[in-house]
Write a structure and sequence with these properties.
With 395 residues, this protein is α/β, with parallel strands linked by helices. The protein has 14 helices and 13 strands. The protein starts with 13 loop residues before the first helix and ends with a helix. 48% of the residues are buried. Bound molecules: 4'-deoxy-4'-aminopyridoxal-5'-phosphate and glutamic acid. Glutamic acid binds at residues 13, 15-16, 37-39, 124-126, 174.
Length: 395
């Protein structure tokens, strides 16, 4: 049978694929140290869950408003004002079934088939596939290692063509954990505004930030707000990965377009998830702060450990819960057949039972990505194994 040509250029998600392989190995009795998928090891705070349970008891299970519950959007508006210094009204917020859903809504609302979406490298694994699936053309932009792989104004200017429609900017970054300064963002906004390019500002990790003064793109100016679609969600900050809840904040016209699209594709996200998200916003400030402080201490442990492993360096992480590890020394050492990072990760998993994600999934083959959204023992044991593996390669 002939399936859609869309599938011809689509690569299945590496992050989801590795995590499924780990589950399979676990079910076969093999213990795996899992540093692959970016999924918090915390559970959803009880106080938030209570809102979901109550909503079910009160039979809040019928169709509701497409862009999301009014009370939830009102709380999101307050959060964006208080924490991100962004002024939105509730008709500029669209709540979706996860940030993935929010991103595809945005792509469908803004880009025409054949238009370019600019994606700085390294990038989160799903962006290029989402762009292709929605008919756009991913155009990758090389960034510099010495600049922590942050996009510069010059790199952006060189990449823009008459066919460019949108830039995807992830801040804090997945996979590097790097965070843009206000002035770096201002330069990027100026270029995009002048050239008429939308910015999809994926800020899903903004709560998990270890530097003061995180800047949301849309907070910079009225111009910035006009061209920016901010992506956020509850998966990372409140450990709600499986509940699937994300949202966008954008100008009213774009919000209306995304809402119309969502009305046909999913209607609205599960009401139970929305009530839990509402509970998280009104009740769980302390739980979120606690989780972030734990991530920070894990990051510090990881940095100290990696600093003592030969042939390894990394991009210093200021946010999210990832480290992007540079293994170019290791990749040069051995005659890898196809892709260094894929072969390295396969051997690491099969022989040492440690799961990490190959850098090629993010566009750079000399790297691997570690997620430290796991407990400290797992982290220590996994880095010991990393040292052992690299020793074996060199000796
Ligand atoms: N953006 C980034 C940068 C991510 O790492 C992820 C992974 N969860 C998403 C979006 C998608 O989030 P969600 O699970 O809410 O769909
Ligand atoms: N975004 C997370 C990651 O990068 C979760 C998996 C996914 O959705 O890709 O690992």
């Amino acid at each position: 049978m002939n399936l859609s040509k869309r599938l011809d250029t689509m690569t299945p998600s590496f992050t989801i694929g590795i995590s499924s392989k780990v589950k399979e190995m676990n079910s076969n009795g093999i213990d795996v140290l899992n540093l692959s998928i970016g999924e918090p090891d915390f559970t959803v705070p009880e106080k938030a869950k209570a809102y979901g349970k109550k909503s079910l008891d009160e039979n809040c299970t019928k169709y509701d408003l497409v862009p999301g519950l009014k009370i939830l959007r009102e709380e999101i508006v307050k959060k964006l004002k208080k924490e991100n210094n962004c002024d939105y009204s509730i008709d500029e917020i669209v709540v979706s079934s996860g940030a993935k859903n929010s991103i595809t809504n945005a792509l469908l609302a803004v880009t025409n088939p054949g238009e370019e979406v600019l994606i700085p490298k390294p990038y989160w694994v799903s962006y290029p596939e989402m762009v292709k699936l929605t008919g756009g053309i991913p155009k990758f932009i090389d960034t510099k290692r010495e600049n922590g792989f942050k996009l510069s104004k010059e790199e952006l200017l060189n990449a823009i063509s008459d066919n460019s429609k949108m830039l995807i900017l992830t801040n804090p970054s997945n996979p590097t954990g790097n965070v843009y300064t206000k002035s770096e963002l201002e330069e990027i906004v100026d270029v995009c505004y002048e050239k008429g390019i939308f910015i999809l500002a994926d800020e899903i990790y903004e709560r998990i930030c270890y530097v003061d003064g995180f800047t949301s793109v849309a907070s910079l100016s009225e111009k910035a707000k006009e061209i920016t679609i901010t992506i956020n969600g509850f998966a990372k900050s409140v450990a709600m990965t499986g509940l699937r809840l994300g949202y966008t904040a954008s100008n009213r016209e774009v919000a209306k377009a995304m809402s119309s699209i969502q009305g046909h594709l999913v209607s609205h996200p599960s009401l139970t998830a929305q009530y839990i998200g509402y509970g998280a916003l009104v009740e769980c400030e302390d739980d979120i702060k606690h989780m972030v402080s734990v991530y920070r201490s894990r990051r510090d442990i990881l940095i100290e450990r990696l600093d003592n492993i030969e042939h390894v360096s990394y991009i210093h992480p200021f946010g999210a819960f990832y480290m992007f590890i540079d293994l170019s020394d290791v990749s040069k050492k051995y005659n890898w057949e196809k892709s260094f990072s894929i072969e390295f990760c396969e051997e690491f998993l099969n022989k040492y039972h440690v799961a990490v994600v190959p850098g090629i999934a993010f566009g750079l083959d000399d790297y691997i990505r570690i997620s430290y959204a796991c407990d400290e023992d797992t982290l220590i044991n996994a880095t010991n194994k990393l040292e052992e593996f690299i020793d074996d390669i060199f000796n």
